[in-house]
Amino acid sequence: xxxxxxxxxxxxxxxxxxxxxxxxxxxxxxxxxxxxxxxxxxxxxxxxxxxxxxxxxxxxxxxxxxxxxxxxxxxxxxxxxxxxxxxxxxxxxxxxxxxxxxxxxxxxxxxxxxxxxxxxxxxxxxxxxxxxxxxxxxxxxxxxxxxxxxxxxxxxxxxxxxxxxx
Length: 166
Known about the structure:
By secondary structure, this protein is of the alpha+beta class.
């Protein structure tokens, strides 16, 4: 329980490498994959965590080894959070930047394709934003966390009547 099968520093090195690998891998899969978990996304993450477990602990099942690995992952996450807060360019590299999915009722189909968003995903996000028709949308943005925010047009400009009707 207390005896390590590999040196303590190897747990740290392995943890940093696995953390960096998963960060890059999950960043490359697109915003939708990290922001909106469907059941198969959750299953992937659970299996992924099991798959990288042995690469982090080198087959060591000691309590100390597990604590070192966990502390390493928490430290990596904390350091990255502080660095991205301090350096906006790094934040853009790690998190990406928000992108306009719908502008004045016009859908950016290439962006939907790049982010693996289906028409139904977009329709669900628009409904959640209080919109039933695309012409009501001034702008819909896919945020860095994968969520879609919707800004509706002013009712006057969308043909919805006067301000007294609100």
